[in-house]
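Quick start: load a record and inspect it. Here is Aromatic ring-hydroxylating dioxygenase subunit alpha:
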Amino acid sequence: MTKHDANSLTIPNDWDRRGLPAWTYHSEAMFALERDKLFLTHWQVVGHVNDVADPGDWLGFDLLGERAVVMRGQDGVVRAFHNLCRHRGARVVDGEKGHCKGALVCPFHGWVYNLDGSLRGAAQPSSFGGLDRAQFGLKPIEMEIFHGFIFIRFFAGPQPSVAEMLAPYSADFAGYRSEGVLPLDMPHWATELPVNWKSVRDVDNEGYHVPMAHPALQDLYGRTYRDLHLDGGLNVSIGTFGDAPARRWSVKQYLAIAERQDWLPEHLQTTWTYYGLFPNAVFAFTPESVQFYQEIPISPGKTRVTGRIYRQPVESRRMKAARYLAYRIDRDTSAEDQQLSIWSNESMLSTAFEGFHLSDLEYGLKRHHDSLRDLMPVMRLPTAPPEAEIAARNAELISQSTAQG
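Running the structure step on this input writes:
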């Protein structure tokens, strides 16, 4: 039996309302398992093709001991490589983005790489004997571009292609013209929080808290907000604005200034939409702007929340002003979510904490937790195994599940 809530989300009549056990948020061994089974084997969004618009433009991306560089070659092709010189492993680029003219030069010993990753030459090549340059190019990383956004995956994993996962909403990405958006002339935003990455995602994966915790969003679209949760790790949230007068300054000004964009499909004209891709990325669209944000885990108790914001290539003065007001609303919302993440995460260290008891309006959070449990079934255990046994226990549970069919 199933039921439908006010957000048109199909929910079982009886379901396990518990979340992940508290120990999974603070265990070093669990975090190591997430590194290997989740983050390094699942797609991560790095940026947009217009972040690397010209040959020699590059983006850096670090994740849990792995380092990537995404670069546009002289032939116009965007490629992804491990950011390690093949000589001694130094970074061939350092930073979040930059530009190199014609070649990458390793700052350690001066090995030179072409923009397609091939080795042009080693410093003092005669000292290496018969060095075969063809065998020492930068190591490639699996990459996919979806409507302009660049995704990489350090190691092969269980997810299909990004295009397949986001197929149900490919038309929306096309409708927003995301392939042609341009980065804002400002650094991408980032902040570090003293929390486990799951606590950030737990807050973002449900709209039950919007009326209480996000007064601006409630003022903007709270009456129409709904969550949809699809198979394959895709979550979608939609809020339609303009159906009622606003009270808060930023929202009131936004509604007064925002213009209908005739180039947008009708169903996107007055909506803010959020597309969440398992495990840690969200794309947020308004009629004036596009952004993505994600959680980059650093340690069991530290997470870097970061993202990039983009605009349409042609925008009127009113559209630009509305984009700024949308940014103000989103900035306040992000600060509110960050505080909620901190409170939720620290509560799990209390002896009084007895776990989550989820509302039907938090069923999306349950779906996210289920995806984690499927990958790492040790998370189903209410009590933590000894740290040294967590990986082995997880492997044992996977083996048992496979044997049972």
